Amino acid sequence: MTDLTQEQVRERIERRLAGRHRVEKTFRGLGIASIAFGILAVVILFSDIIAKGSGAFVQSAVQLEVHYDPAVLGIEQVDEESLTWANFTGVIREALRERFPEVSGRSEKRELYSLVSTGAPFKLRNRLQADPELLGRSETVWVAADDDVDTFVKSLSDSGGGFRGRTSDRMIRWIDQLLASGELKKRFNSNFFTNGDSREPEQAGIRAALVGSLLTLLVTLALSFPIGVAAAIYLEEYAPRNRWTDLIEVNINNLAAVPSIVFGLLGLAIFINFFELPRSAPLVGGLVLTLMTLPTIIISSRAALKSVPPSIREAAMGMGASRMQVVFHHVLPLAMPGMLTGTIIGMAQALGETAPLLMIGMVAFIVDVPGGVTDPATVLPVQIFLWADSPERAFVERTSAAIMVLLSFLIVMNTSAVWLRKKLERRW
Amino acid sequence: MNTMTLDAAGQTAPAQPESVEKATVDTDTRVTETVGQPFCDDAKLRMRGINVFYGETQAINDVSLDIGRNEVVAMIGPSGCGKSTFLRCINRMNDTIEGCRVEGDLTLDDEPIYGPRVDVVPLRARVGMVFQKPNPFPKSIYENVAYGPKIHGIASRRAELDEIVENSLRRAGLWNEVKDRLDQPGTGLSGGQQQRLCIARAIAVSPEVILMDEPCSALDPIATARIEELIDELRENYTIAIVTHSMQQAARVSQRTAYFHLGHLVEVNDTETVFTNPQHELTEAYITGRFG
Known about the structure:
The complex is a heterodimer.
Chain A: H1 6-53, E1 58-67, H2 70-73, H3 80-85, H4 88-99, H5 106-113, H6 120-130, E2 138-144, H7 147-155, H8 169-181, E3 184-188, H9 191-194, H10 207-238, H11 243-255, H12 260-274, H13 282-306, H14 310-318, H15 323-352, H16 355-359, H17 380-388, H18 394-424
Antiparallel strand pairs in A: 1-2, 1-3
Helix pairs in contact in A: 1-18, 4-6, 10-13, 10-15, 10-17, 12-13, 13-15, 14-15, 15-18, 17-18
Chain B: H1 2-9, H2 17-28, E1 35-36, E2 43-54, E3 57-68, E4 72-76, H3 83-90, E5 100-108, E6 111-112, H4 120-126, E7 127-130, H5 141-151, H6 158-171, H7 175-178, H8 191-203, E8 209-213, H9 221-234, E9 239-243, H10 247-253, E10 256-261, E11 264-270, H11 271-276, H12 281-287
Parallel strand pairs in B: 1-11, 4-9, 4-10, 7-8, 8-9
Antiparallel strand pairs in B: 2-3, 2-5, 5-6, 10-11
Helix pairs in contact in B: 5-6, 5-8, 6-8, 8-9
């Protein structure tokens, strides 16, 4: 070994060189391949969801000439009570019969009536409520078509003549007539953004779930961020290192790995059964998600505090800053970006969480948009779960659309967090 | 050839006669008592029988030393001899190290530094510190200097604070270089400027003692020369204890020099005496470069 000449050494190095380059190239190739696989997966996922879900943003609507006939409605004047009892369904049916006067017979009429959504009378009611002058007069309105009609119309462009489902030949004839005359059109589906859940796909909307998610996350953020940061600061800056703090640390790390449904059971037992908080409420959902996100926030906040250079602490302490001044003037500002990153990861987890919320009743069928944290509510992922479970074909595209809304929510949240972090970040 | 270079780059070569001597010096000499004059009449800081422990290990062994008013005392010695540890006892920075225990009597103007009643906050305002690595806060130059006066509530008005900042920067010899960019980050300055900023920050609260822990070890010779000049000027108003690895620096800036060896204070004397006529053989071995 010791007797190698310089030439021999160089020769040996060169002999190995080709192999080393080859290994390097292979490794780089593997890296590129795995990134390409990831990108491909994301592209497929997004294109599939967008292709399936974009249809939900438009909705077939039928143009009807309706006459607000007091005799049909069964009311004399417009007030709160009469509106509740008024027969708007009759008005719609009359309008349909007028449009297709040739229709006769019970079953044929039933098929005719099923062209428009069962939610259509509510639209007329709202219009009359907004403008009582309409009583006794006529107007042209667009009412949502039934989901079977909608599905058929949307599938017409597909090869094979469209998905028929429960649509009969007679109905298809009427639909063709209406399409030809421009009385049946695909219009922007505002219901999807303004309504709560519904059994009728054409009436179902994401608003209630969106507001529910927002309220739940607000509760989660308001509780988990201050508690998590305070716990991290105490453990990192104040607590003595002993058996108890070691035990606490181990427990926090373990809690981060506990399956979320367990937190749901805990929430059910403690918040609902013991404290008797309302079921299905964003308040309880937020509490449960707080329990779930706290370990994440504490762990990342502690890591952020640890990464603050000790020289800064020494400098501040050497100036005679008290412990709290050291933490709040120097350590915390430097650790804040890292803490925010952890919080955002926790919040993103919380936004997508379904299982623990099922346990506390947020899986209930909620039609009304929640007005506060104690109102019954559902959240976006649970809404997706519910719609994915529904048999109507029209819910397929709504499920995908709800996923799109959830993902946009997530993207908006993460982008704002990244922006905030960039703004707070300081170099030293 | 290869083996020879390795040895030259490593510690003192074992084959050389000096090293044999060094080995004997190292093992045979027991430090029992400090040689020279560790005490002075007009002492600002009085330290008696200081022992410092890190857990079970003893880092400082029965050290007694006085630091006189308006005096610069240099502390020299090989790495790990405990000079920094000793320095950090004076403003109780050792409190922040887990498992560190300090025994003995330390007084600042005859007031105890350690004791159940002593609050470290006012103590550290009286005993400022400059660290080895320049460590300005990641804030503006102005904020860096104004931080001490702010937290101690020294300035009541903005104009007063401005004046303190200007005076401190002037005394640290930095004013002319930074007066037009006080709002820029202190971390953007050069190494030497950062260290002077740290000195300005320390003197902004008008401390009585300034502790300097190898303040020039991260600086180039020009910046070092400026800091040394500065230390000489600061002596008029402050008492300074400086730890240094550079014997030339100790000789240039200090009036008295203390030589530490393995946690013992071996010799304290006038700087001139230490460097020209060392009393203890360990001191002599160190200053003549036989180890360290």
